[in-house]
Amino acid sequence: MKFTACDLPGLIVIEPTVFGDSRGYFFEAYNESLFHKNGIDYKFVQDNQSRSSHGVIRGLHFQLNPFAQVKLVRVLEGAILDVAVDIRKGSPTFGKYFSVELTSENKKQLLIPAGFAHGFSVLSETASVLYKCNQFYNKESEGGIRFDDPALNIDWQVDLKQAVVSSKDIELPLLKDCVSNFEF
Ligand SMILES: Cc1cn([C@H]2C[C@H](O)[C@@H](COP(=O)(O)OP(=O)(O)O[C@H]3O[C@@H](C)C(=O)[C@@H](O)[C@H]3O)O2)c(=O)[nH]c1=O
Q: Site: Participates in a stacking interaction with the thymidine ring of dTDP-4-oxo-6-deoxyglucose. Where (predicted)?
C-alpha cells in the first residue's frame, strides 16, 4: 500500500497493493495498522455509498464542529474526479483545491481531513462511490460551497452546462459568503 502526501497538507492519496490471478484480483482497501503507521488514525464510524450518472456533480460539502468529518473516498464502479478544497481559516493554502481521478481501475483512495470541502464529478457513464467517515451525519452541521464558485475555479472535467446538480447544491453560497461560519 502506497501513501502519498499531496500539495495541500493533510490530503493523502492511497494506492493499494493488488494481487491478480486467474480468478481476478484481491486487495486490502483498509488496514487499520498500515493506516495508523502512516498517520491516519481515525475511528471511522459511518460508510456512505452513492451511485451517479455521467455529468453529475455532488458538492462541495462539509460538516462543521462538533460533527466535522474526515472522509476516505474510493470508487467501486466507474470513474470520478474527486475534489477537496482547503477551507481551513489561516491555512497558507486556503481556497486552493486538489483533484484526483479515482476509478475502479486505479483503485486509488483520497483521505480528506476535516477542514476541507469535498465534491466529485462523474467522468464515466455511471459511478458508485464509497466513503468512510469518522463522524456521523448531522443535518444541522452541514455546510456547502457552490461547485462553480469563480474564486475556486475548479476544472471538473465535465461540461458544466450539462452538469446534473441537486437543488440543494445549486443554492449553496460562494466561499466568500460563508467563510465566517467555519469551525473545524
Ligand atoms: C450525507 C448523508 C445524507 N443523508 C441523506 C440526506 C438526504 O435526504 C439524502 C441525500 O443527501 P445529499 O443530497 O446531501 O447527498 P450527497 O449530495 O451525495 O452528499 C454527499 O456529498 C459528498 C460530496 C460528500 O462529501 C458527503 O459528505 C455528502 O455531503 O441522504 C443521510 O441520511 N446520511 C448522510 O450521511
A: 137
Question: What phi-psi label fits residue 115: left (phi over 0), alpha (psi between -120 and 50 degrees) or beta?
Answer: left
Number of domains in the chain: 1
Taking the centre of ligand 1 as the mean of its atom positions, its distance from the CA of residue 11, in whole angstroms, is 21
Active site amino acids: 61, 131
Q: What is the pLDDT of residues 48-78, one digit of tens each?
A: 999 999 999 999 999 999 999 999 999 999 9
Return the ligand 1 atom nearest residue 59 CA. Answer: 23
CA of 82 relative to ligand 1 center, distance in Å? 15
Best residue among 44, 58, 165 to mutate for probing ligand 1's pocket (most ligand atoms within 8 Å of CB) is 58
Pocket flag, ligand 1, residue 138 (CB < 6 Å): no
pLDDT tens digits along 140-168: 999 999 999 999 999 999 999 999 999 99
CA distance linking residue 119 with residue 80, whole number of Å: 10
Residue span of the structural domain in which 112 resides: 2-181
Q: Tell me if 143 CB under 6 Å of ligand 1.
A: no
What is each CA distance from 11 to 22, 120, 138, 154, in whole angstroms? 35, 15, 23, 17
Contacts of 2 by beta carbon, 8 Å cutoff, 6+ apart? 14, 15, 17
